[in-house]
Design a protein that fits this description.
242 residues; alpha/beta; two-stranded antiparallel sheet; 9 strands; binds S-adenosylmethionine
Length: 242
């Protein structure tokens, strides 16, 4: 955001308006709740691969990637590959940088499709748990000397996300972000959480974020981003390193 740019200063005014508008916030919460049973988040693909994200959050990620121009984007949780290939495609457009995608299980058909994808040239996959000390050590080694940003989107339980935050947030560059996806779990009715998931109300990415922020004064929640998105899976989850 550039305070001297009229477009940006108008945007800031609009964001302040949204922060004060309880009706539009309530409407957005209703929208999130009512689209969830329709599995709305599973409706999209990026360059042919399923991406389990809201388009709004991916616009925010594009703004973050452009503003921070990272050497490295680390994401935990690859699934079908859509999001790691999305980040790789942004870096390809910018002509710089690499993505590391970590997943405990990369199924053969997903790995094949990802490895055959034209954006794979900017992507490195690591198979293993994101909180396995060997995986963390590998990523720490690859991140040495690099300006990194991080996206956490794997197991959404409190303990797992907190362990990920402790392991990966220190790799984020100053001004960069550690984005914690699916903090919205805390804000939705418990009945919407799929059966058998190891997360629940009171045990999810948002609770992990709040505990992590008690331990670290190096990150703040970017309230402007979530205010302007309105529709996001990551309320309180856009953590900026200051
Ligand atoms: C929500 S999906 C990721 C979606 C993906 N980021 C996207 O936007 O398309 C969650 C993924 O986390 C992976 N996962 C679960 N537990 C994990 C762990 N301990 N370490 C790494 N990945 C894990 C699952 O295998 C699954 O593929």
């Amino acid at each position: 955001m550039n305070a001297t740019d009229p477009f940006d200063s108008d945007m800031q005014t609009q964001i302040e308006g949204l922060k004060a508008d309880r009706d539009v916030q309530a409407l957005s919460r209703i929208w999130l709740r009512e689209t969830s049973p329709h599995r709305y988040v599973y409706n999209f693909k990026w360059m042919g691969r399923p991406i389990i994200q809201f388009p709004q959050d991916m616009m925010a990620m594009q703004e973050i990637v452009w503003a921070t121009r990272p050497d490295l984007i680390i994401e935990t949780g690859v699934a079908h590959g859509g999001s790691v290939l999305y980040y790789a495609s942004l870096l390809e457009l910018m002509g710089h940088g690499e993505v590391i995608g970590i997943d405990i299980e990369i199924r053969a058909h997903n790995r094949k499709a990802i490895e055959e994808h034209p954006m794979n040239r900017r992507l490195r996959l690591i198979e293993g748990s994101s909180i396995d000390p060997n995986v963390i050590a590998q990523v720490q080694e690859l991140a040495k000397g690099k300006r990194a940003i991080v996206v956490l989107d794997s197991n959404h339980s409190h303990d797992h996300v907190l362990a990920e935050l402790r392991a990966y947030a220190p790799l984020v560059c100053k001004g960069g972000y550690c984005v914690v996806m699916d903090t919205v779990v805390e804000d939705l009715p418990a009945s919407l959480i799929a059966e058998g998931r190891p997360w629940s109300l009171g045990n999810n990415p948002k609770t992990a974020v709040h505990e992590f922020l008690k331990e670290s004064d190096e990150f703040v929640i970017d309230r402007d981003l979530e205010a302007k998105l309105l529709i996001t899976v990551a309320p309180d989850g856009y953590l900026k390193r200051i």
